[in-house]
Amino acid sequence: MAISRVIITGANGAGKSWFAGTLAARRQDIKIISYDAVRLTQNWVKRPDEAVAQTMSDITGRDHWVVEGGPSLLYHALDRAQGVVWLDPYPWTRAGRLARRPWLNLGRTRSELPDGNVDWPIQQYRFALRSLAKGRQMRAAITADLRRTPPQVLWHCRSPNDVEVALETLAKAIDGREITPPAPAP
Questions:
Q1: Which of 3, 62, 109, 113 gives the lowest tally of CB atoms within 10 Å of its CB?
Q2: What is the end-to-end Cα distance of the chain in Å, rounded?
Q3: Chain mean pLDDT for the chain
């Protein structure tokens, strides 16, 4: 099955940006759109909901797209997506990543964000703690969304092996080669 419209989603610290960057490195012919780049202006200020909705409508109205972002992305794109990569590592994995993130990007804007959204540890730790506390809610929301609007192919990635399988098969699927969807997680 060839796939041309893909969502990469998960909670904060799930590895969405890393996955998107790795996919883009393997497939340099595709451009990955960051939902955060659509939602944010500078200094972590969100764009108006109407502007976000219009931009997402323009993006998802195209025949080919790959968008990475958190669970709120699903509202804007799931009905048009053919494939979804749900990065869903265990909470301690996310906690470790979220603890390191502001130090790896200290005083800089991460590549998936618009200029002017700088990582500072105290601000990011407050955000990370809220995100970790809402982990079960996010998982439940993503599960419910995927049940309501199931994609043709779903990669539910809990382990590093799941992530590698998703990267490998998605890179081929976007290429138009036939793939076998992954077996459901136990």
A1: 62
A2: 23
A3: 86
Q: What count of other Cβ atoms lies within 10 Å of the Cβ of residue 184?
A: 7
Pairwise CA distance, residues 96 & 119, whole Å:
16
Does residue 148 have a pLDDT over 70?
Answer: yes
Extract the runs of DSSP E, i.e. beta strands, from 89-166.
153-157
Q: Which of 12, 34, 14 is nearest to 24 (CA)?
A: 34
| Strand, helix or coil for residue 66 | strand
Residues 154, 160: Cα–Cα separation, whole Å: 16
E strand or H helix that includes residue 55: helix 49-60
pLDDT-derived band at 175, boundaries 50, 70, 90: low
Distance (Å, whole) CA 80 – CA 124: 32
Confidence of residue 96 (pLDDT cuts 50, 70, 90): confident
Strand order in the sheet with 65-69: 32-34, 65-69, 5-10, 83-87, 153-157
